[in-house]
Write a structure and sequence with these properties.
Largest interface: A-B, 45 and 45 residues
Largest sheet of chain A: 8 strands, parallel, barrel
Strand order of the largest sheet of chain A: 8-9-10-13-14-15-16-17
CATH superfamily of the largest domain in chain A: Glycosidases
Radius of gyration of chain A: 24 Å
Family (chains A, B): Belongs to the glycosyl hydrolase 20 family.
Shape of chain A: elongated
InterPro entries (chains A, B): Beta_hexosaminidase_sua/sub, GH, Glyco_hydro_20_cat, Hex-like_dom2, HEX_eukaryotic_N
CATH class of the largest domain in chain A: Alpha Beta
Keywords (chains A, B): Disulfide bond, Glycoprotein, Glycosidase, Hydrolase, Signal
Helix content of chain A: 25-40%
Oligomer: homodimer
Strand content of chain A: 15-25%
Structural class of chain A: alpha/beta
Number of domains of chain A: 2
Distance between the termini of chain A: 12 Å
CATH architecture of the largest domain in chain A: Alpha-Beta Barrel
Pfam family, one (chains A, B): Glyco_hydro_20
Number of strands of chain A: 17
Catalytic activity (chains A, B): Hydrolysis of terminal non-reducing N-acetyl-D-hexosamine residues in N-acetyl-beta-D-hexosaminides
Number of helices of chain A: 15
């Protein structure tokens, strides 16, 4: 287990053979540049997190055999060079520099988001000496910035409902590994927990229960909590499939009625032939765009079961009347209408790979998220087509396995792709689908696996052996901070 | 999901088409037979657990479409026919009868342990009606007793240390599924958290840290908590292998020194040639026998790496002088000495299957625990040899997999063994080895998988399809009671 090393590994780091002590009651952050609420909140938060101990009476810490400076480190200069932005975005600048030497400590960044990443790094440099009471930091200089700008974590809150607390914990855990996008797979077939002001029946009738709804305030709270961690919240409203839960609270025409004698209650995807359905979606997406602050909106588009469409007499007639010759063209027609909506709303769509696979016409800025196995061919095709791309195929954290799981996730690196359009790879997302996950196990199932994905997406040099010991420390750090991250590599003990 | 059904499934149960309401402020247990502290404590505990709600404002409960009696159920007669025993044992009588009809409710058992099992069952019969405020119970008569008398759960507290709270939670969770043996794999190579009065250095030098020790009081607390749940605590002090952590705090002669140029700090199994080592073990086991109240003691005996023995010059000389012609005989010699100790202490040994496999001479009462895969042949051999046997091979809960895991564990049933000595099958144990498990994930990794093992060992008729819906309810019940049991079968929602 390492001591005071950073996860994910910084781009450039030099450590010197000199150490400074830090005393909880004699250390402060000195803001010397711009400031804002986000910074105030985070400085308070990190002041607390710098000096956490989970165990008090311990004598089993490693000696850091240090060459101490005479004076303890009394402050860190926090120098933000520009005014804070309101919300994080795809193009936010996360670069920061840290320099700790025997006379001076400084954290410097162009943007508040860089400052946040730097504070996280600084907090990870601080560790506890073997006397169990002295906190220490090694003289270090770091210049750090991410390899990919979209480093996401998907949580599916439809198959199981998560209390808000679980989501806030998840956001905290993400921030400890510098993940920066919370992909909120908020609704799906099983339940519709999103409370819409325009269509309150969607959650009233589509949620698992009245206690299983994200109220307008809940959503606001989650977005604000994400914001102060520099995490974007991108909601996914998956259509035209995966929308069974929309039926009872939506409009009557919304879903194709696929019922038959065997299954009298079978409803298929959203009916693409009914104009009212697009009006409904436009109203909903307008609200969604106002509630969520990100420019991106995930439209889903995966696993559309089209049999209900092709078997429906009315749909068949519609296709004939509109010169739509097959189901793929019908799906194209559906998405053309949806893209018209997002275009008006100035929202950039993200879609699952099926929408690309089926040759549906996409605006050039539409982002394609790849989730199926053997992703290389699809990845190549998407890159050739000029669309920005996100990878998730190899990062389905819900497929838990025995052992040092994180190593599998760590071995998958989209930057190994041979392409001259690597600029189109925005990054990727770890996915936590909730068939077999809920608030009882989401944290230990997600962490430290998610940390591996985070490092792949942030760091430029990946070395599994070196990472193992560093991850071990990171797991203990997460546990100190209240995240129940499960054991990474085998038997071990967190010594503070 | 079922409503008010019992896990594990009772031996005989008749349900009638009549329901009684229960009101939290107008219900009590009436003790009409013997009583004792255990009963007092449990009646208070179950009074609380009968009326738990995790969610308050819910309208999504199923209607039980009931035929209600006029009068609510105001009390349950608890009729214990014999004085309480002090501690549970292998031969404890867990049989109980419950009869709930429109005029009367009675729980009857010969022993306090039967009463405890019956209270658990009674609490599971009570469920919440769809109005979200009325608790109801169906008129039912049950006669219930277990198929196997040893229904265990092994926890390895050496590879990772568990706070006492984790162990108490584990015991609670066990009791909800009528498991009755906590096999405490308390020490192993990695750490020695057991605080011995005779040899305090064992934990002082062998534990992961000073905060990673089960003090004398901790152990007492755990045993007492188990006792009031009718759970035996059988500690395992695994020798002669798996004992690296004994070295620093034991006596200098304890482990064979196997060091060489490549590994200067390599110590092998306990040295079987040194009489002081047996004296040491005798003193330790005498203390262990006093601390733990069970007649059984697990001696381990698995995975002995004998190379250190056979390569040691002194051991070779000892073998020659004592006419010990091979390493198996040397291991036999070791266990002969250990069995002499347990015989004096009137302790019944349990050993892992290797001790049987290697033809070490065993007293007839020695219990053999089978853990290796493809267990049928070994099981047959042990039964033919006349030794009592415990099965664990198919119940390694730590080997977690994606999906409805519990079904695999549920499919393994030792009573399917063809034998005329089925009386020798005492039962089995679910095992939670801690290479990749600690307090962050032990509960969701263990449950509801452990429930499946519990039902296999308790119930006489097993039906996976029927069990699935009942387990779903049991998971919600465990969550209400504070045990984070993970999803059993897929998307779902606990409605109260």
């Amino acid at each position: 287990m390492t001591n005071g090393q950073v996860w994910p590994k910084p781009r450039l780091q030099h450590s010197y053979d000199q150490y400074l002590k830090l005393k909880p009651d004699n250390f402060h952050f000195q803001v010397t540049g711009y400031s804002c609420d986000i910074l105030d909140i985070q400085l308070k938060r990190y002041k607390r997190m710098l000096f956490l101990k989970a165990i008090n009476n311990n004598e089993y810490l490693n000696s850091l055999s240090m060459n101490f400076t005479n004076e303890p480190m009394k402050m860190l200069n926090v120098l933000l060079l520009n005014p804070c932005e309101d919300y994080p975005s795809l193009n936010m600048d996360e670069k920061y520099e840290i320099s700790i030497n025997d006379t001076n400590g400084i954290l410097l960044a162009n943007s508040i988001w860089g400052i946040l990443r730097g504070l996280e790094t600084f907090s990870q440099l601080v560790t506890l000496d073997k006397d169990g009471s002295t906190f220490v930091i090694r003289c270090t200089s770091i210049t750090d910035y991410p390899k990919f700008s979209h480093r996401g974590f998907l949580l599916d809150t439809s198959r199981h409902f998560y209390p808000v607390k679980s989501i806030l914990d998840t956001l905290d855990a993400m921030s400890y590994s510098k993940l920066n996008v919370f992909h909120w797979h908020i609704v799906d077939d099983h339940s519709f927990p999103f409370q819409s002001r325009a269509f309150p029946n969607l959650s009233k009738k589509g949620a698992y229960g009245h206690s299983a709804i994200y109220t307008i305030n809940d959503v606001k709270l989650i977005i604000e909590h994400a914001k102060i961690l520099g995490i974007r919240v991108i909601p996914e409203f998956d259509t035209p499939g995966h929308a069974s839960s929309w039926r009872l609270g939506g409009i009557p025409s919304l879903l194709i009625n696929c019922s038959n004698n065997i299954d009298p209650n079978n409803f298929g995807p959203i009916d693409p032939t009914v104009q009212e359905n697009y009006d409904f979606i436009r109203t909903l997406f307008t609200e969604v765009g106002e509630v969520f602050k990100d420019q991106y909106l995930h439209l889903g588009g995966d696993e559309v079961v089209t049999a209900c469409w092709s078997n429906d007499k009315r749909v068949q007639a519609f296709m004939q009347n509109n010169n739509i010759s097959n189901i793929t063209e019908l799906e194209s027609y559906y998405f053309k209408n949806i893209f018209n909506i997002t275009r008006t709303l100035e929202t950039v769509p993200i879609v699952w790979e099926e929408v690309f696979d089926e040759n549906i016409r996409l605006d050039p800025n539409v982002v394609v998220q790849i989730w199926k196995n053997d992703f290389n061919e699809t990845l190549q095709k998407v890159l050739e087509s000029g669309h920005p791309v996100l990878l998730s195929s190899c990062w389905y954290l819900n497929y838990i396995q025995y052992g040092a799981n994180w190593m599998n996730y760590y071995s998958c690196d989209p930057s190994n792709t041979t392409t001259n359009r690597s600029d189109l790879i925005l990054g990727g997302e770890a996915c936590m689908w909730s068939e077999f996950v809920d608030d009882t196990n989401v944290l230990p199932f997600s962490w430290p696996s998610g940390c591996a994905v985070a490092e792949v997406l942030w760091s430029h040099v990946l070395n599994k052996t070196e990472a193992a010991a560093r991850l071990e420390e990171h797991v203990c750090r997460m546990k100190r901070r209240g995240i129940p991250a499960r054991p990474a590599n085998g038997p071990n003990y967190c010594s503070y």
